[in-house]
Amino acid sequence: MTKKRMYVCSIEAAMDVIGGKWKPHILWKIKDAPLRFGAIQEKLPAISQKMLTRQLRALEKDRLVSRTEYPGMPPRVEYALTERGQTVIPLLASLKDWAEEELADQITANG
Predict the structure, then answer these.
(1) Where are the alpha helices (DSSP H) in 30-106?
(2) pTM for this predicted structure
(3) Measured distance CA(68)–CA(5) in Å, rounded
(4) pLDDT tens across 44-103, in order?
(5) Are the C-beta atoms of 52 and 41 separated by less than 8 Å?
(6) b/e string for 32-49 if b means 16 or more Cβ within 10 A?
């Protein structure tokens, strides 16, 4: 059994679960529909396969993302937001809106 980490501050706890360079991007990319690993990687070309795997496992461990395996050759795996993961999307949308308003001059057209 894994010991639960205890936090001093709720912001620290939240950032541990959804923070970092890639987790918010991954959650945002799968917000509308489940995606296969390769499709997520196509949408995030700067992430390495190893890092994407690591981040998806962490999101799955924190119950924000579900992983569904489908039989076949080769086997197919899809990642989707869980109900808990869906609750993060409004937070990310608020961050996106804030950045578009306050940091517009720092965001490229493809950003």
Answers:
(1) 37-43, 49-61, 83-86, 89-102
(2) 0.88
(3) 27
(4) 999 999 999 999 999 999 999 999 999 888 888 999 999 999 999 999 999 999 999 999
(5) yes
(6) eeebebeebbeebeebee
* Structural domains for the chain: 11-104 (1.10.10.10)
Report how far apart, in Å, the C-alpha atoms of 2 and of each of 29, 37, 61 are: 29, 27, 11
Decide: 65 and 30 in contact? Cβ < 8 Å: yes
∠ CA 36-98-106, nearest 5°, is 85
Angstrom distances, CA of residue 20 to CA of 9, 45, 86 = 17, 17, 18
Do residues 56 and 65 lie in contact, with contact meaning Cβ atoms separated by under 8 Å?
Answer: yes
Q: What angle do CA 104, 101, 20 make, to 5 degrees?
A: 75
CA separation, residue 34 to residues 58, 80, 81, 92 (Å): 17, 4, 7, 18
